[in-house]
Amino acid sequence: MFGLLLIIIGLTLLANCSQEDKPLEIDLEKKEPFKTVENRQTEKPLRIAIGGMITPKEGFAYYRNFLDYIGEKLNRHVELVDRESYAEVNNLLKTGDVDAAFVCGGPYVNGHREFGMELLTAPVAYGGTVYYSYIIVAKDSPISSFPQLRGKSFAFTDPLSNSGKLAPTYMLAMMNESPDSFFRTYIYSRTHDNSIKAVAQGIVDGAAVDSLIWEYASRTNPEYTSKTKVIHKSPPYGIPPVVVNAQLDPALKEAMREIFLSAHTDKKGREILKKMMIDKFVAIDDSEYDSIRKMKAWLEKHASEKKP
Q1: Architecture of the domain made up of 20-25+130-237+299-306
Q2: Where are the beta strands (DSSP E) in 196-247?
Q3: Considering the entire predicted model, what is its pTM?
Q4: pLDDT for 146-196, tens place per residue?
């Protein structure tokens, strides 16, 4: 009930916003932090960040299991670090407060440019190393195309998300529009599953979400995805990768990479990956994220040209 009250209050405030107002952030469902076991090793724990933007809430347990699997292989305690935004995760990597992270393509491009964030590996999901930005609306909505969302309410996920912010903003810019000029109101839901719920429950008219998360939810718990429909599928982008701090010990980095790359070859690793809806992990080249770089560069140039 308390979460519902917060949503109602947030919507009331949104209804009174002008197009110049900054979008409000709402948190539809707080996650309970995972309790980590006391480290029995004398070695410093390996810290790996997984934000709620990367997986639906129900998928967190499987990521936790996979981190435990990594710890068993390394004979070292692995600590899960949970953060609410990509900016927080990137900052932790920059300062060395985490050693590795599961991130989106957009934050990887930013982090690689700003402080040398490095690719470790990437998942193969649904047969490939790509994903898409889905534009979704309610199942019974008469809206059938992205332009029909003009003047409607919309949910982005995270300001640094590729599928949840950059890709739809690029689409708008190609139409000579911006979120402020095109939508009546818009919000940041913080996670893709929150955005799916917001559309399914009629809180917003549309949303941009990560195809991997929509497909995962559709296959494992379709309570909310079944109440939505995909009206636009973007071009493919490099899949959200696993990244490391550039200063991480090279020997540890290689040991971690080998564990990721070989996880699908042993029974326990394969079972965990199956529950994560991941076929296996593979090496991936930085060039796979060039399409995201091109969108960012175009938007930055477009924005500078529009300044007086």
Answers
A1: 3-Layer(aba) Sandwich (3.40)
A2: 206-210, 228-233, 237-238, 242-244
A3: 0.84
A4: 999 999 999 999 999 999 999 999 999 999 999 999 999 999 999 999 999
